[in-house]
Specification:
Helix content: 25-40%
Largest sheet: 7 strands, antiparallel
Number of helices: 7
Number of domains: 1
CATH architecture: Sandwich
CATH superfamily: q2cbj1_9rhob like domain
Shape: globular
Distance between the termini: 27 Å
Oligomer: single chain
Strand content: 15-25%
Length: 273
């Protein structure tokens, strides 16, 4: 089945709506305006969504591929803080640094995608990485060197969720493929903290249930989302129903050779490279 899926589109370019997003012409006026829009949105809100980046036919094909790979996903359940680190004992009880919530998600790792996988070929396609670099206003990007973490398919089923957290990377690139029947909303608070102010009181209010400032990003299949989550706390609300939520996660960095720690690999994939 995976080989049949791959043959439906021989080039990653065929997956993208190039009429709407002419990413092959980075010097063209339309694409320069698009990348300026992306950077402006990121600076103002921490996120930039490009709906319809993939064609409907491409989405359907990648969903079929995702369903064919979903059984390989490693489903983990961990409990952590929004800061993704063990809290220092000196923090008082009730502090955001000591607020624990569960996260549960299934992940298909990069090394589980076959070589003829259209999702893998899209991730490894140089023009896509060059466009994302331009949208982020980075001179150059590099694909993760991690054999498991470079490309992931997040597979979330009934009851699974991601708790409120800040990312430890500068940006995340994702492609929405299929929403769940209910729940599974991506929510975030734009730029709730910065390099000089953790804004603990506002984070505390959020963790206690306040919805002030929370932005919900509707999940439309085919949307490319650029998200700078280091300073924008975010979560995925609990999934309900039989339909799994599918999101592709494409990992890039501004420096070459980026790999996950063995501890993170074990927690996320149940094994180490």
């Amino acid at each position: 089945m995976q080989t049949k899926v791959a043959k439906e589109n021989r080039s990653p370019a065929d997956l993208i709506d190039l009429a709407r997003y002419p990413i092959l012409d980075l010097n063209g006026a339309v694409t320069r305006e698009l990348t300026r829009h992306c950077r402006d949105q990121l600076d103002r809100t921490g996120a930039c969504a490009l709906p319809g980046f993939l064609t409907p036919a491409a989405v359907a094909m990648l969903v079929r591929e995702g369903d064919s790979l979903a059984a390989l996903a490693y489903h983990s359940v961990v409990t952590g803080t929004p800061y993704l680190e063990a809290p220092d004992p000196s923090w008082p009880n009730g502090h955001p640094r000591k607020f624990f919530e569960p996260t549960s998600v299934g992940v298909v790792a990069y090394d589980q995608f076959p070589g003829d996988s259209p999702m893998r070929q899209l991730f490894e396609w140089e023009p896509l990485m060059q466009f994302i670099a331009a949208a982020l206003q980075k001179d150059r990007l590099h694909r993760y060197a991690d054999p498991m973490g470079a490309l992931n398919l997040a597979v979330m089923g009934d009851g699974e969720r991601l708790h409120w957290h800040f990312d430890q990377t500068d940006f995340v690139t994702s492609i929405a493929l299929r929403p769940s029947e209910a729940g599974g909303d991506f929510e975030y608070v734009p730029l709730i903290r910065n390099a000089t102010d953790e804004n603990y009181p506002r984070v505390q209010c959020l963790l206690e249930g306040s919805s002030a400032g929370v932005v919900r990003v509707a999940m439309h299949p085919g949307t490319l989302l650029l998200f700078e989550g280091r300073n924008s706390i975010h979560r995925v609300t609990p999934i309900s129903g039989r339909t799994t939520r599918l999101v592709a996660l494409l990992a890039y960095d501004t420096k070459p050779g980026t790999r996950s720690s063995k501890g993170l690999q074990m927690a996320r994939y149940g094994r180490v490279a």
